[in-house]
Amino acid sequence: MDCYVSCLLGVVTIVVCVRYYVRSKWIRFAEEIDLKGKNVIITGANAGLGLELSIQFAKRNARVYMACRNTKKGALAVEYVRKHLGSSADVICVELDQSSLDSVRRFVDDFKTRENTLDILINNAAVNAIPSSITEDGILLHYATNYFGPFLLTNLLLDLLKRSEAGGRVVNIGSLSHTGARLDLDYIQPDKARFYIQTMQKGLIKKPEDILLYQNSKLMMLMFTFELARRLGNRGVTSNCVHPGIVATKMLEDDRNLLRKVIVFLLWLFAKSPEEGCQPILHCALSEQLRDVTGKYFGNLEEDNNLHEMALDKRSWEKLWEISEDTTGLS
Q: Mean of the pLDDT values across residues 306-324?
C-alpha cells in the first residue's frame, strides 16, 4: 500500500510541476485599451471562450453583441456578464445559428438596423466532437458551423468593418489541430466528403469522421483568413487567425468515446482556463502593435509558423474562396 501511495504522490507531483512549467510560458495581454464607443461581435458567446471574451471586451467599455444559437442560454450569459461586471455592462444577445445561411443573413440584417459601424468581429463559434449531419443548406454540419457560416458572416459585415475609425479587425479562432487536417477541396460536399473520409484517407491511421471534419474546417478557416487579407489589402480591415491553445471549455466535454475521454482528461490537466485562453485572442483584436498587421496566424501572443502545407498554397486559398462563394450564394 505504501508503494502505491508513494507512486501516486510521485505522479501528482510530476503533473503539478509540469503544469506549473507550462503555465509559466503563457503570456498575458497587458495593454490598457479603452473601447468606449466601439462595437464588437462575438459568435458562440453563451459559454466557454465566447462568454469570457464577452466579459473581457465589456469591461473595456465596448458594446458587445453576443451572437448565440440558443437565445435562452444567451440571455443567461448576458445576466452572467452583468452580474460579473455590473448592470451597466453594454452586452446584447442576438440570435445567430452559423450552421444556417438564412440565420446568418437575418443576423446581419438585424445588426445593420442597430449599428452603422463594426470595429471587431470574433469568429469563435464552432462544433467539434458531435455526430456528423447535413444542414438545411446541404452542407456538413462541421463545415457549415465552423467555416461556411463565418465566411458568409464576415463578408456580409465587411462594409461596416471598413467604416471603423480605428480600422476594423476580423479575428478567426483557429486550432493547433489544423495541422492534422486531410483536406481535398474536390471533396467538400457531403457525399464526396464522406466517401473521402471512409475510403481515401492517406496514412496508416484512419481518423474518425468528426475529428477529421473539425480539423479540416479549422484549416479552411486559416486559408480563408489569409485569402481575405490578400483581397482586402490595405483597405482598413485586418484579417488574422489565432489559436488559443488547449482550453478547458464545454467543447472538450462533448466527446462520448471512452478512449477519447481519457485523452481529453489528460489534455485537461494542462489546459488553460477560458480567461487564460482569451489572452492571445485579445492580443489579436486589440494590440496597437497589430493595428496594420494582417494575414497572420498567432498563438501565445506571437506569430506561429507551424502551418499545414495547404495554408501556404495561394492557389488553394483562391479555390476554396470560389467554392465558398458558390456554397453560400455570395457570388
A: 97
Place of cell 451572437: 67
Q: 501556404: which residue's cell?
A: 312
pLDDT for res 237 = 98
How many Cα atoms sit within 13 Å of 80 on the Cβ side?
19
- Determine the Cα–Cα distance for residues 54 and 81; give it in Å rounded to an integer: 7
- DSSP letter for 65, please: E
Q: Does residue 4 have an active-site annotation?
A: no
Helices (H), 233-313: 250-253, 258-268, 274-277, 279-286
Mean pLDDT score of the chain: 87
269 near 15, Cβ under 8 Å?
yes
For the segment 147-159, what is each residue's pLDDT rounded down to a tens digit?
999 999 999 999 9
Backbone angles phi, psi at 97, to 5 degrees: -110, 105
Sheet holding 168-173, edge to edge: 91-95, 63-68, 39-43, 120-123, 168-173, 237-243, 297-299, 302-303
- Catalytic annotation, pick one of 65, 196, 214, 297: 214
Q: Which of 320, 310, 312, 316 is nearest to 295 (CA)?
A: 312
